[in-house]
Every structure is written in C-alpha cells, then in structure tokens.
Design brief:
- Helices cover 21% and strands 33% of the residues.
- The strands form 7 sheets. A 6-stranded antiparallel β-sheet has the order 20-21-22-29-24-27, with no helix packed on it. It has a 5-stranded mixed β-barrel with strand order 6-9-7-8-12.
- It is globular, with a radius of gyration of 25 Å.
- It is of the alpha/beta class and 488 residues long.
- The termini are far apart.
- The protein folds into 3 domains: 2-284, Alpha-Beta Complex (Spore Coat Polysaccharide Biosynthesis Protein SpsA, Chain A); 289-363, no CATH class; 374-478, Sandwich (Jelly Rolls).
Length: 488
C-alpha cells in the first residue's frame, strides 16, 4: 500500500513562545526567528528543509503549513525564500491547539496523504537520524498506525512528558506504547532515565489522513464536526486557505496527545495501533532560554553568546544581543537578552518563569509584551526610530517589486526621504519617481502610495506629524495583499 501513498509534511506553526521573550513575541514568535543553525534560517525554514535528502522511496509533497492568520504573510515569505513557494497555508482564525490544527490539515490534504506533523519551533541537530526514524515509521503509518517519535533522553528532564515503551514490533525500529506520563518530579525523571523504558514526547506524529479523521470521528466527534464545518465554509485567496471563523471558534481545543494518542493503547476496536519510534537526533523544543544555552557553543567558562557581547570573569551564562554591546563582569548562571526596546536579565534556573513577565506586561497594557519595535509587513518592514508629542520617525524598507496599499490618513501628514533605491510615489492624481537623497511631502487627507519598482530594496525615512499617529488611521482604497484592516 505504501507505493500509492505520499508523505505530506504538516508544519504546525502556531504558538507565541512567551518563554523566549523579549526576542519571541506574539507578533513575531520564535518559529520565525533564526535562533540556532549556521545557515541563518528561521526555525520555520529549518523545519521545512528538514526532509531534504529523505529516502527516495518515500514520495513527498511540499509542506502544508497551519499557522495563525496574523502571521500569514510572514510565513508565506519565509517559505518562499526557503524554496517552498507552492506550500499551502491553512490559516487558523483562532488558536485551538494541535489536534484541530491537524484535523484542518487532514481535510485540506490530498486523500492519499500520510501526514507528518512537525512543530515549527523545534530543533533537530542530526537530520540523518531523523530520516532513519521516519523510514522506520513509514510502513507502520501506511498500514494504519498512529506513530509518534520519542526522544531518547540524555538527562532527567522535568519539563517534558514521557512515553513508556512496550514490546518491540516486527521489522525493528519501533515499539508498541504502554502508556504516557505527565511532566515528572526530578526523582521520577531520574528513575525514568535509569530504567531506559521511557522516551521524551517530541510532539511529532505520522499518520494517514483518513485514519486521523476516523479516530476523531470516534474519540472527538464534536472537534471533527467543527473542523469539517470550518473547512466546508473556507475561503481561498492568494496562497491561503481560510477556515470559516465562527465554525472553527466553536471547536474544542485539545492537543494531539490528549485528544487521540493517549486513548489508543488498549483500543484495538479503533483499528489504529499506537507506536513509538525512538529518535536520537539531538532534538530540543527550544522552549526557554536555558534550552538555547544548551544548544549554542560554549566558551571555556561555559558561556554561550550571540551578537555583540563581552563576558569578563563570568561563568555558565547566556548573553544575547541584537543591537548593542552586552557586557557582564563576575556573574554566574545568568541569562541576559537585549533587543532594541527591551532587556531581560534572569537566573538561568528560572527561565521557565519568563512568561510571568509577559503576563504582567499585558496586564499593564504595554505593547512591548506582544510586538517589537521592528514590524514586519507583506511588502517589507518598518522600524519606529523615535516618537514624541505629535511626531514619529520610521525607517521603512520595501522589497523589490512590492508596494504599500493606496491609502489616506485623516490625522497625520508624512514626509518621505529616500535613503537607498528608487521610490515610485503616488500622491493624489500624480505619480513620480524619487531617487536617493530626494524627498516629498504627503499632506493630511491626500491619497498616496509608496512602491519599489527597482531590483534592490528601497529604504526611506518617514517623518509623521499630526494630532494622531496610530496605525489605525489608515483608509485603504487598493491593496495587493487583500488586506482590509489597518496595518501599513
């Protein structure tokens, strides 16, 4: 049966990554960041490339990505840049955890699909061992099993769930599943490590699309019904599939493990055996700053650094800088993370509690909780350099061939100065070009558009002035990206 089936990679790209604040934020979460890896790719890009070189015996398609609607352009651009221009994107109107996300993927995928669910924010250091694990899982999944991948533990980790192995299956490389265990105490985690029968739950799964839907029909009928209704009412624009919002919002929220996987052992009536394939591939879910410290190279004193840093008589610390020098003297086991608008200093043993910072910032209504100073748009990005009473200064970069929407502002005027490249400016009824060191003025209430007709990035400095400078003071008339809400 394997010859008639095709592997459809499903990249689960939701999540906010709040434990990696201030680098990871809701508007630009960790899966879109280049936190680890010599190629400089984001975690999403690394996940999409992870199957390159997979055995030719396993036919596969381009990825199907399930992501937050707010991140659609960011995900699409990163996939395009990584060579996956035809990847499908299913946009969740609201987050409902991984089981409904995989249901959407199963309903969107071709009928002959074997789904490989991969979180977009994990690290796999040894891709060859991953490919060997996938090869072991492939015939089992094709025959109807629900296969998960259990990471071979190398320490008594208390932050992960565990899978207890059962008997070895014929053919080698896989085991039946005897049960699951929640995040354990340190004493119990040490016993798991010593016993050798427990694996970390990686959150990766391989299952036939039709089998997944059948399992949901029995175990989670309300979830399946909501997802079917959402996909039946889905709309399509550009490269996006948009499930109907009200139907999906009514869907119960649950993980793949809780919704299905943990029910399978002992349920022969479902015709869906639960199997686990051990994975020894230098895996990490990169869920906190201490996990990144583990992954990055260390100096002789055990410090891991990125960006402009200087560690003097410091030990076992993580120093991460984005825009300026970070220096420490005489510290031990600290995490220091600098971004242009926030600095985090934490005990390395308390990095799981960084999410408490985000919770308090949200409670105070501070935008730094969820967004960066640098904001990404489908046409490029802007960086708010300075702001004060009745003025704001932005650095704007527009990709070659891209353009902002044709728009108007009720409360602000704008002055544009071209720093690099060539700008095509629409202002009222006139259209003209601006070269480097040239400028123009956009009065309040005047229809305007900025475009980059060149082959190089366009960079301008925009000075806004007026009584109100919020991003919601935008009236759109035309937009190349189908946007109807404010946002540049």
């Amino acid at each position: 049966m394997t010859s008639s089936l095709v592997l459809t990679p499903v990249i689960l790209c939701g999540g906010a990554g709040t434990r990696l604040w201030p680098l990871s934020r809701e508007a630009y979460p960790k899966q879109f960041l280049a936190l680890q890896g010599d190629d400089g790719g984001s975690m999403l890009q690394d996940t999409a490339r992870r199957l390159d070189g997979l055995s030719a015996e396993i036919a596969r398609r381009q990825p199907l990505v399930v992501c937050n609607n707010a991140h659609r352009f960011l995900a699409a651009q990163q996939l395009h840049d990584a060579g996956f221009a035809t990847a499908q994107l299913v946009l969740e109107p609201v987050g409902r955890n991984t089981a409904p996300a995989l249901a959407l993927a199963a309903l969107a995928a071709p009928a002959d699909s074997v789904l490989l669910a991969m979180p977009a924010d994990h690290v796999v250091g040894d891709v060859q061992h991953l490919h060997a694990a996938l090869a072991a899982a492939w015939p089992l999944a094709c025959d109807g099993a629900m296969v998960t991948f259990g990471v071979v533990p190398d320490r008594p980790e208390t932050g992960y769930g565990y899978i207890r192995k059962g008997g070895a299956l014929a053919g080698g490389g896989a085991y039946a599943i005897d049960g699951f265990a929640e995040k354990p105490s340190l004493e119990r985690a040490q016993a798991y490590l010593a016993g050798g029968e427990h694996l970390w739950n990686s959150g990766m799964f391989m299952v036939r699309a039709d089998q997944w839907l059948k399992a949901l029909e029995v175990l989670q009928p309300a979830m399946l019904a909501a997802c079917r209704a959402a996909m039946q009412g889905a709309s399509r624009d550009l490269d996006f599939i948009r499930p109907e919002e009200a139907a999906f919002a009514a869907c119960p929220a649950d993980s793949i493990d809780y919704a299905v996987m943990e029910h399978l052992p002992g349920r022969a009536d479902l015709g869906m055996p639960a199997c686990v394939v051990p994975l020894d591939a230098r895996w990490s879910d990169l869920g906190s700053w201490d996990a990144l410290w583990e992954l990055l190279p260390h100096d002789g004193a055990g410090n891991a650094t990125a960006g402009q840093t200087l560690a003097v008589e410091s030990q076992g610390s993580l120093l991460f800088s984005q825009s300026r020098l970070v220096a420490t003297v005489g510290v031990q086991d600290l995490v220091v993370v600098e971004t242009p608008d926030a600095v985090l200093v934490a005990d390395k043993r308390r990095t799981q509690d960084v999410k408490k910072v985000v919770e308090q910032l949200k409670a105070q209504g501070r935008s730094v909780a969820g967004s960066h100073r640098k904001v990404h748009r489908p046409w490029g990005w802007y960086d708010s350099i300075d702001a004060g009473e009745r003025f704001q200064v932005k650095r704007i970069v527009v990709r070659p061939g891209a353009s902002l929407s044709l728009q108007m502002h009720h409360h602000r005027a704008e002055h544009w100065v071209v720093v690099r490249g060539v700008a095509q400016v629409t202002r009222g009824d006139e259209t003209f070009l601006l070269n480097e060191n040239e400028s123009t003025f956009i009065p309040v209430g005047r229809t305007h558009r900025l475009a980059n007709p060149g082959k190089l990035a366009l960079e301008i400095i925009e000075v806004q002035s007026g009584s109100y400078l919020g991003e919601d003071d935008i009236v759109r008339f035309e937009d190349s990206y189908g946007r109807t809400t404010p946002g540049g």
